[in-house]
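Sample entry follows:

_____
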Amino acid sequence: MFYKDDRLALFIDGSNLYAAAKSLGFDIDYKLLRQEFERRGKLIRAYYYTALLENEDYSPIRPLVDWLHYNGFSMVTKPAREYTDALGRRKVKGNMDVELVVNAMELAPRLDHAVLFSGDGDFKPLVESLQRQGVRVSVVSTMRSQPPMIADELRRQADNFIELDALREVIGRPPREPQAATPSAET
């Protein structure tokens, strides 16, 4: 499905990919992810989309966003909106779908293959449009979680479905070793 002379672009729906990897019990090593797709073709662009809580002193995602930015990913962020739902629970909203679609449509004339890291069925019309423009589309998500994170209509529309769990050995961070207790000196 991948050809060495393909011009590729990655479109990573950050929150969706994070949720899929977490449901499978592993963390993504984004350096390895980038290297894997550089091996598969000519990587033109690797976009990463995420919403950020701007009003907090520290955001747990900020170190990742900074690292990705400094290591060749095109970061697309926007402030997340906080609100309180009808039950009084604090909720955060920060959908990045429109930004991802606009970037994919703008880049399509210069691509042979788009790789979408999301299982969101809302992207089916994007996949159809890219295909009409002659771009092959691979979708990376998982069917191995409960419930599956990939919308059936998106999986069926894609030219190629890549099971995220099958990439675990290639792009997964090695599990951290538990700290061994120091043996006590016997007297």
About this structure: The radius of gyration is 19 Å.
